[in-house]
Amino acid sequence: MTVYAHQWDVLSSDGKRTYVVSVTADGQWQCGCMGWTGHMPRKDCKHIKGKKGKKAESGVGSVRAPARAVAPTPAPTVQSALRSGATPEQATDAARAKRDEVQAKKDAQLSKLRHGFQLAEEWLVGDGLPHSMVAEVKYDGHLAMLVDGCIINRSGRDITHRFPEVSKVNGSAVLVGELIIPYENGNGLGDFSGGIQARNTDDEVKIRALAKQRPALFVAFDILEAAGEDVTALPLRQRRMLLETFYQHAQADRHSLIQQEPIQSKQDVLRLRERERARGGEGIMVKDLDATYTAKRGRNWLKVKTWQDREFRVLQHEYTGIGDGFVITIKNKGREQTVNMGDRKMREVVKANKSVTVEVKFLSEADDGALRFPSVRRVVPA
């Protein structure tokens, strides 16, 4: 909370709005209008200029009660800023402030955790590999941490109530893994669009029904605390031993320990990637067995994705009306979906021809034909 020494209500020049000019306890000036932003004080607005140099007790304007704690006003979106009469430049500043506000909330949520999330870089064929490494299946679900009886997602949000069927961990350990909804065909993979996304709800009735119909599974791949001790400074090979020991003694419903496969070379990596592609998986993770746990993105963990290419006929095209957005419509297994097309040369070809075929890159496809992360690579020559 910010403590304000003085606050005034100031009428806008058109008389239609009222802005709040404030002076914080440490002497910082603020204003509620679009022309002022805390991260860009050079844009000192006319309302602040009209108040600076005047004593609070002078009675100028409508003086509010001093020295009270006030929650910060949510930053406006670009659309709301423009509707309020802001210039495009001011609206851009407002959007930046909104992003800062959202990030600050995420940081505040994550600060409640003792550990952050370690993330992986994407591996390309020409890249190097760790000296000592192991491979794991890359599941398609939600990255999660089990800590102090809660399930926390990557954004730092407590989603415990959304997965009542998954056993929690209290005190003795902190686990990291992937929450998935297994496919009903028994292939062991996670159903993203038709499964885990359905749990993005706070409807208790719906959650109970989903937990019974298609229960989630927590696939554990790391342990950050064991017997109450922080083990993040240990290499992965030792943390893996602790993780296996934990599950030898734990009574955990809807938990699974991820399987690891030793690999020696780039050929092993490519072989496992092709295996996952053949069964419709998202890819594999390659991890350095000698590396400690580091809560940031890095190359100690590498994600090797099963990108695919396929040709599709363009059914129609249109501008989205949002900026310069342009999409095409394709059909896969009877399901139509739109794909963004940013390349202007490809757009012109599509607009100039009635029948066009494009090559689309995508990560995986659902049973109903929905493509994950599709993008247009090229227009196929006629």
Q: How far apart are the termini?
A: 63 Å
Oligomer: single chain
Structure classification:
alpha+beta
CATH superfamily of the largest domain: DNA ligase/mRNA capping enzyme
Q: Please tell me how large the radius of gyration is.
A: 27 Å
- Nearest-integer average pLDDT: 83
Main pleated sheet? 6 strands, mixed
CATH fold category name of the largest domain: D-amino Acid Aminotransferase, Chain A, domain 1
Task: Give the overall shape.
Answer: globular
Chain-wise SSE layout:
Elements (H helix, E strand, L loop, with lengths): L1 E10 L6 E7 L4 E3 L14 H6 L10 E2 L4 E3 L7 H6 L4 H23 L8 E4 L10 E5 L4 E6 L2 E4 L19 E8 L23 H10 L3 E10 L2 E2 L5 H14 L5 E3 L2 E4 L2 H13 L4 E6 L8 E9 L2 E6 L2 E4 L6 E7 L2 E6 L3 H9 L4 E6 L1 E2 L5 E2 L2 E6 L2
Parallel strand pairs: 6-16, 11-13
Antiparallel strand pairs: 1-2, 1-4, 1-5, 2-3, 7-14, 7-15, 8-9, 8-10, 10-11, 11-12, 15-16, 17-21, 18-19, 19-20, 21-24, 22-23
3D structure, described in words:
The chain is α+β, with helices and mostly antiparallel strands and 382 residues long. It has helices spanning 46-51, 78-83, 88-110, 204-213, 236-249, 266-278, 344-352, and strands at residues 2-11, 18-24, 29-31, 62-63, 68-70, 119-122, 133-137, 142-147, 150-153, 173-180, 217-226, 229-230, 255-257, 260-263, 283-288, 297-305, 308-313, 316-319, 326-332, 335-340, 357-362, 364-365, 371-372, 375-380. The protein has 3 domains: 2-110, no CATH class; 119-305, 2-Layer Sandwich (D-amino Acid Aminotransferase, Chain A, domain 1); 309-380, OB fold (Dihydrolipoamide Acetyltransferase, E2P), CATH 2.40.50. The chain has 7 helices and 24 strands. The strands form 6 sheets. Strands 8, 9, 10, 11, 12 and 13 form a 6-stranded mixed beta sheet that branches. Strand 19 and strand 20 form a beta hairpin. The radius of gyration is 27 Å and the shape is globular. The model is unreliable at 38-43 and 55-73 (pLDDT under 50).
